[in-house]
Amino acid sequence: MAVCTIHTSTQSLNSRCSLYTPTKTHLGFNQRQVVFYSKRSSSSKRGSSSVITCSAAGDSQTIVIGLAADSGCGKSTFMRRLTSVFGGAAEPPKGGNPDSNTLISDTTTVICLDDYHSLDRTGRKVNGVTALDPRANNFDLMYEQVKAIKDGVAVDKPIYNHVTGLLDPPELIKPPKILVIEGLHPMYDERVRDLLDFSIYLDISNEVKFAWKIQRDMAERGHSLESIKASIEARKPDFDAYIDPQKQYADAVIEVLPTQLIPDDNEGKVLRVKLIMKEGVKHFSPVYLFDEGSTISWIPCGRKLTCSYPGIKFAYGPDSYFDHEVSVLEMDGQFDRLDELIYVESHLSNISTKFYGEVTQQMLKHADFPGSNNGTGLFQTIVGLKIRDLFEQIIATKETAPVEATQA
Amino acid sequence: MATVAGLNLSTPRVFSRTTDSPKAQPLKSPLLNNPWKMPTRFGNGRVYMQPLRAAPESISEKVAKSIKEAEQACEGDPASGECVAAWDEVEELSAAASHARDKKKDSDPLETYCKDNPETDECRTYED
Fold first, then answer.
1. What is the dihedral of CA B116, B120, B122, B125, to 10 degrees?
2. What pLDDT is stored for residue A176 in this prediction?
3. Does A95 contact B115 at a Cβ distance shorter than 8 Å?
4. How far apart are CA A165 and CA A172, in angstroms?
5. With an 8 Å Cβ cutoff, are A72 and B98 in contact?
6. CA A186 remoteness from chain centre
7. Which residue, A12, B26, B27, B128, has fewest beta-carbon neighbours within 10 Å?
8. Shortest alpha-carbon distance between residue B30 and chain A (Å)
9. Which pLDDT tens digit goes with each residue over B77-107?
10. What is the pLDDT of residues A121-130, one digit of tens each?
11. For position A256, what pLDDT does the model report?
12. Contact across the interface for B13 and A95, Cβ inside 8 Å
């Protein structure tokens, strides 16, 4: 059978299908992998009639994380921070479509949900619908494929080419330890939502979104303040109808707002960022400041720590969010020096670091990423650590109760 | 700027805790004292400096073209599906252009070549 050729040629994509060697992950445990072949028909409506997939029986299932945000709101940066926390660089599939949207590292595979567009660019234009509109997306296929991967079965996932606006031939996605689905609608469809072990929503306020898009686009030929504004405004009704409501389902929301430290500031340079964490989520215990469950307002700048203008302000406390009990941690202002960040890190609890200074180390490592000096970078890094912790907890429960792991 | 005055290490307590811990080693970095002062980010108009212009020509052209088309599509009815879809295309292409710039910024020419030509001699890798 041609099976083995397929898999050896794509071995670099993921180590899960290696046949004889026990794989050692950087997380420090060994797994002996048993491989069986099964035949199933392709769930993709394009192309091949059937694919052979391999799956590691008895292996732990894939953990699925959802990340929702509008285009241009920092999903890519978040993904880079998250995969960095897990160690190893995340890269596009080797030897595949250069316009693939997938990122693969040792533990994690990140897929972009734009790949489930049912209408390509021309199709959306003809029908007058945006990519935000559920009618432009194939949720049945999204559900089928995410479920298959979660169950340990590789899938042929379509590729939406953002350059050409066309759907390219599919790519093989093998079940990783952690699958991240990022895009506009990870929590829109109830079936897909139920597959998520953890979900995050990046909630960027209109003022900040505008400032970020100016930064991103102003140098681009043809763009002007007017075009940037027009694009945001035209997309807003669909955004409000289909994207924004997903935040009620998120286990963690990172809300990005203009600062309150500078009166009437709307430059979008200094940011106030809130990390809203749902209570009672399995394997996820919210971060807190000083005293869990109390309401705290904290200005770290003072005698021990000197901060530059406009300073740094933290707040923490219980709250409710869409009728859910939540804990909210808020940071306004920005870090100007390393000691400020270390000082803040040392006063936060439950951040799931493995050693003192890990948050600071991660932030330093990616000092060139947007937001490394403010709450967006800080909270993205912390959420990354919480996800690592969640993953390790789930693995640990499965190792002690292997029978449970076989259940859906 | 107010930041310059504060560059001395004014909080030795915090630092001594760090250096006491052997695990804090990886924090040593050439960027230690001002890790955030990278030239390409936030700040007084400098944001629009060189690397941003580097999006591959074809995408840049597509962005410019899509903006013109969106403006035309919206002349009649700014709330029409046609107009909204046209501006959505502008957003999609602008995001793609931005991602292409990011990719280009940290790409190694050999890596790029080997991604496309993994079978060539110069791209062979040896496992053992």
1. 90
2. 94
3. yes
4. 20
5. yes
6. 10
7. B128
8. 10
9. 878 889 999 999 999 999 998 888 877 766 6
10. 999 999 999 9
11. 95
12. no
As a whole number of angstroms, the distance between CA A100 and CA A79 comes to 15
Residue of B nearest to A97 (CA): B116
Distance CA A340, CA A333 (A): 11
pTM value is 0.74
Is B11 within 8 Å of A309 when comparing Cβ atoms? no
CB atoms closer than 10 angstroms to residue B78: 13
* Contact: A336, B60; criterion CB under 8 Å: no
CA distances from A8 to A132, A161, A192, B16 (A): 38, 26, 31, 51
Q: Give the minimum alpha-carbon distance from A118 to chain B in angstroms, rounded to a whole number.
A: 15
Per-residue pLDDT, B55: 57
Distance (Å) from the alpha carbon of A114 to chain B's nearest alpha carbon: 10
Instruction: Identify the pLDDT of residue B118.
Output: 82
A242-264 residue pLDDT tens: 999 999 999 999 999 999 998 87
Q: Where are the beta strands (DSSP E) in chain B?
A: none
Rounded Cα–Cα distance for residues B69 and B78 (Å): 13
Mapping DSSP onto H, E and C, the string for chain A reads: CCHHHHHHHCHHHCHHHCCCCCEECCCCCEECCEEEEEEEECCCCCCCCEEEEEEEECCCCCEEEEEECCCCCCHHHHHHHHHHHCCCCCECCCCCCCCCCCEECCCEEEEEHHHHECCCHHHHHHHCCCCCCHHHECHHHHHHHHHHHHCCCCEEEEEECCCCCCEEEEEEECCCCEEEEEECCCCCCHHHHCCCCEEEEEEECHHHHHHHHHHHHCCCCCCCHHHHHHHHHHHHHHHHHHHHHHHHHCCEEEEEEECCCCCCCCCCCCEEEEEEEECCCCCCCCCEECCCCCCEEECCCCCCCCCCCCCEEEEEEEEEECCEEEEEEEEEEECCCHHHHHHHHHHEECCCCCCCCHHHHHHHHCCCCCCCCEHHHHHHHHHHHHHHHHHHHHHHHHHHCHHHHCCC
Q: Report yes or no: B35 at the A interface, CB cutoff 8 Å.
A: yes
Contact residues, chain B, for A373 at CB < 8 Å: 36, 42
Q: Do A361 and B27 touch (CB under 8 A)?
A: yes
Min Cα distance B114 → chain A (Å) is 8
Within 8 A by CB and 6+ apart from A139, the residues are: A116, A185, A188, A189, A191, A192
* Among the partner residues A71, A309, A356, nearest to B95 by beta-carbon distance: A71
Distance from CA of B62 to the nearest CA of A (A): 9
Q: Is B69 on the interface with A (CB under 8 A)?
A: no
Chain B residues with CB-CB distance to A355 below 8 A: 21, 23-24
Indicate the residue type of A189.
D
ipTM confidence: 0.77
Residues β-bridged to residue A30: A24
> What percent of chain A is modeled with pLDDT above 90?
58
Residue B88 to residue A130, Cβ atoms within 8 A:
yes
